Amino acid sequence: MVSGGVMAVKTLLIYPYIKNAVPTVPIGLAYLAGMLLKHSYPVRIIDAIAEQMDDQELAGAIKDYSPDIIGISAMFSEYAKSYHDTAKLSKNALPGAKVVLGGSYASTDPELVLRDENVDCVVQGEGEMALLDIVRGSQARHIQAPYIKDLDTIPFPARELLPMAEYFKFRSPYVLRNPATSVITSRGCPRHCIYCSIHSVWGKYWRKRSVENVVDEIELLKDLYGIREINFNDDNISVDHLRMNEICDELIKRNLDIKWTMPNGIALWTLNEELIKKMRQAGCYRLTFGIETGNKRMQKYICKNIDLDYARQVIKWANDAGIWTISTNILGFPTETRQEINDTVDFAISSGVDFALFYNLTIFKGSVVEKLEPVKFSPDEIRQIQTEAYRQFIRSRLNVDLGRLVKKLYSFEMVLYFFRLVMMFISIGIRLIKFRQMKTSLMYKWKI
User: Fold this and answer.
1) Are 347 and 307 in contact (CB under 8 A)?
2) Is 3.40.50.280 the CATH classification of the domain at 3-151?
3) Per residue in 321-339, pLDDT tens?
């Protein structure tokens, strides 16, 4: 109930089922739920992946809860059918409910989403304030949400509404300690990389949570769920160099014994040797560097503008500090030549990273690259180049630097982690090689 004896508007937030997807905490929905709870509105979250709900069960849950508003998380365009199927199922189960879609997919093409007769409203951008407007009676079909400047005003994600134990059952090979979960300490990114579409949701203006607010959440997660590792899922956590230092200082001060990483990468141009050493002391055990290309012309073309010489230095500092290092690399940008791709592979090998990942270019809706000329290479050619890149990189790492390994294998859990990473990395290369061999065999058999 709310003031005046009027029944409060009920909201159901749904993370749609996606076949073969690994359950991960839908932190965006948990943030939305936290904001509604702060303002005393009843809300429930259904994660159809974690709860293994089929369509019949989901429809039954919708009818049982009988919400006034159904919010559907729509993150990636490749799963658009799942989002629209969920919208249709929701309308069929409860025709009077207002169906709202939000997330990256909904934000990059709201007009397309609104063509679906089962969708009543699209939220473009951050959803907390927009959902409050909807709950309070907004009839707008397309809401362009304002960016929240003071992130400390947003409550912690309402993880208590989620089946948290389900997320801890799966152990990623990238995770050192279980249970592990994600925390987001900032929103937005001031960079303009042409392959990225995060601006459609978080915007270009970087905003941060206070150091105390961030570490308070981490401490709460440890107390409530026994969390032993945090993945900082910011798009650019270290934009503010001083704040990164202060987060490390606070983690050290509270002595939480939490390991942490930044799987989305870190802005290496903000790092120096002193900060890297402090990060290691504060619990950081792995750094991912989004190098993307090892060619200077392509660095400018994709608007990444990394100083490759400085990147080598930062990687060396991280290795010297005993932190595992991974680089991510993208193959097949528009205008990119085969020699420029070779430069990327060569840089990955010579840069000194422990592991390198090679991805084919994914063209996200809303990214600049979507509007550029077509890629020169076919998907099959890129896969062949990927296979060779992994083969070359693995071969280059067969001569192990024992001195460097000793710095990183400082505990039994770290030894186990190292072997998990090695097996995962090798399996990627093997899968690519097997795919290539299978396709070649079929082409020969059928004279393709």
Assistant:
1) no
2) yes
3) 999 999 999 999 999 999 9
